[in-house]
Design a protein that fits this description.
By secondary structure, the chain is mainly α. The longest helix has 28 residues. The protein starts with a helix and ends with a strand. It contains 3 helices and 2 strands. The protein is rod-shaped, with a radius of gyration of 21 Å. It has a two-stranded antiparallel sheet with strand order 1-2. The chain has a domain of 55 residues: Orthogonal Bundle (Helix Hairpins), CATH 1.10.287. GO terms for molecular function: exodeoxyribonuclease VII activity. Keywords: Cytoplasm, Exonuclease, Hydrolase, Nuclease. It catalyses: Exonucleolytic cleavage in either 5'- to 3'- or 3'- to 5'-direction to yield nucleoside 5'-phosphates.
């Protein structure tokens, strides 16, 4: 077996399990996987090539989680009250 083939086999075995892209994951699963990646990298016992690969996966997961949070924030609304104190409708929540 050639060295390149051996490296590819090792990478396939040691690559993190999960779907090909983070876009398929719900927020909780993406965050859980991201936390696992952070723990592995913090331990410092991951080979360099694998560290780079899981770091890249972590970046993709981070972007996915940020997108999902932004979407959730956009959906949150506050109840507006009329002059009589009753609910009159909703308006976007101003979180700034």
């Amino acid at each position: 077996m050639s060295a390149a083939r051996s490296d590819a086999s090792r990478a396939a075995v040691s690559a993190p399990a999960g779907p090909a892209g983070p876009a398929d994951l719900p927020f909780e699963k993406a965050l859980e996987e991201l936390e696992g990646i952070v723990q592995r990298l913090e331990q410092g016992n991951v080979p360099l090539d694998e560290s780079v690969a899981i770091y890249e996966r972590g970046e993709a997961l981070k972007r996915h989680c940020e997108t999902l949070l932004q979407r959730a924030e956009a959906r949150i609304q506050r109840i507006t009250l009329g002059a009589d104190g009753r609910a009159a409708g909703t308006a976007p929540l101003d979180v700034a």
